[in-house]
From TrEMBL:
This is Class I SAM-dependent methyltransferase. GO terms for biological process: methylation. Residues 3-64 form the Methyltransferase putative zinc binding domain. It comes from Hymenobacter gummosus. Pfam families: Methyltransf_13, Methyltransf_14, Methyltransf_23. Keywords: Methyltransferase, Transferase. It comes from the Bacteria. The lineage of its organism: Bacteria, Pseudomonadati, Bacteroidota, Cytophagia, Cytophagales. One of its GO terms (molecular function) is methyltransferase activity. Residues 244-404 form the C-methyltransferase domain.
């Protein structure tokens, strides 16, 4: 296997999470008795460009097909994040009715709706037909397709080039990163700006966020690697912001390398220097990750077993890819340790988690079941979830997160490490 960016042969394993089904491949009741396909979930690090990447075992068209179960608009904190982004970009770059804002992987129009509301023309691009239908209902014009070099050429030939190109949490999802970035270069106007958001590999390693590794994520990114990928396609990173989303993300601003109107900021130079100082351009940085992953698994399993021995009830919140990676790596099968998971999205309710076959119910099930512990599987929104489910305090319920280490807490601001026996 060779590196997706530079072609170097890959030899060094970053994390091996065994075999499991794709994390968003939710099951219906009729599928529970059918064979379930599992794929190796193993990541490698390239010792030339330092791109961390998964082996390509399932093609993107199979993962992001006609029906996809993730809808961005079901997270209120994510909607607020999008609204603030639009406000910031409008203030900074002054988009008008004569501009075009384009988003690759626009999902259900969660972000572009805010530009549309301000009278700025928008075009969403997303391969999933069901999310595109929801976006259309918000007035967000959406093309159902993958963003590729070929599509970018078609759009440019049709006169649709972007003043702003948004690529949030998508670069990691594309199997051919070079093709995607070349497409960005082709569809961006000469003076245009592209922004991307992606979880920062520095945080993934520091916080042992191994549950963000799943088949839908082909790549795990640092600023150093992204800057190198962009430069190869004639784009320059000119600014960067560090964000709290997804456990610590970067928002990268890019332009055509020939566009000298946007100088490279000190923030870019400082973060590149910090990554180098942390050792991200050395092999040693990536070699002690697996033992830390295994410690998290052991702690979480022991917690679940201890609660079962004590007659306590533990349920999960969030039928998210993160949780499925954790649950499947821990080898949890059936409902003995975690009888149910709840999720706010009606598109997931009534289905079953891949691999574990744990049923997914409405959040109202928590009031009915009165669990002793609610495991917040998408720990990146722990504050939002713990505030929404604060009523579990009425019967002495507590929240739990497993990453970066096992914690129980009564509300988002009050963590307390669990003492395991």
């Amino acid at each position: 296997m060779n590196c997706r960016h530079c072609g170097t042969e890959l030899h060094h394993v970053f994390a091996d999470l065994g075999h499991c089904p794709p994390s968003n491949a939710m099951l219906t009741a009729s599928q529970l008795e059918e064979p379930e396909l599992n794929y190796p979930l193993k990541t490698y690090v390239c010792d030339n460009c330092w791109l961390v990447q998964i082996g390509e075992v399932k093609k993107a068209v199979e993962i992001f097909g006609a029906e996809y179960t993730y809808f961005s608009s079901y997270s209120t904190s994510w909607l607020e994040h999008a609204r603030r982004y639009v406000e910031m970009m409008m203030d900074r770059f002054g988009y008008t009715e004569d501009s075009l804002v384009m988003e690759a992987a626009s999902n259900d129009g969660y972000l572009l709706q805010y530009f549309h509301q301000r009278g700025v023309p928008v075009l969403g691009i997303d391969p999933t037909a069901n999310t595109a239908r929801i976006a259309a209902g918000k007035g967000v014009r959406t093309r159902v397709d993958f963003f590729t070099t070929q599509l970018a050429r078609e759009l440019a030939a049709d006169g649709q080039k972007a003043d702003l190109l948004i690529c949030n949490n998508v670069l990691a999802h594309v199997p051919d990163m070079n093709d995607f970035v070349q497409g960005m270069q082709l569809v961006l106007k000469p003076g245009g700006v592209a922004t991307l958001e992606f979880p920062h590999l520095l945080n993934l390693v520091a916080e042992c966020q191994f549950d963000t590794i799943y088949h839908e994520h082909f790549s795990y990114l640092s600023l150093s690697t992204v800057a190198r990928v962009f430069a190869a396609q004639g784009l320059t990173v000119f600014d960067v912001q560090e964000l709290p989303t997804h456990g610590g993300s970067l928002r990268v601003f890019a332009r055509h390398s020939a566009d000298r109107s946007k100088p490279v900021s000190d923030a870019v130079r400082e973060l590149l220097a910090r990554e180098r100082a942390a050792g991200m351009l050395t092999l040693e940085y990536y070699q002690d990750f697996q033992p830390r992953v295994d410690t998290v698994r052991a702690e979480f399993l022991e917690f679940l077993l201890e609660q079962r021995r004590a007659g306590k009830k533990v349920v999960g919140y969030g039928a998210a890819a993160k949780g499925n990676t954790l649950i499947n790596y821990c080898g949890i099968q059936g409902t003995n340790l975690m009888p149910l998971v709840v999720d706010a999205s009606p598109y997931k309710q009534g289905k079953y988690l891949p691999g574990s076959h744990i049923p997914v119910l409405s959040p109202e099930a928590i009031r009915e079941e009165r669990p002793d512990f609610v495991v917040i599987l998408p720990w990146n929104i722990r504050q939002e979830v713990s505030e929404n489910l604060r009523f579990i305090h009425d019967w002495g319920g507590q929240f739990v997160v497993a990453i970066p280490s096992l914690e129980t807490f009564s509300y988002a601001g009050s963590p307390a490490h669990v003492a395991l026996t």
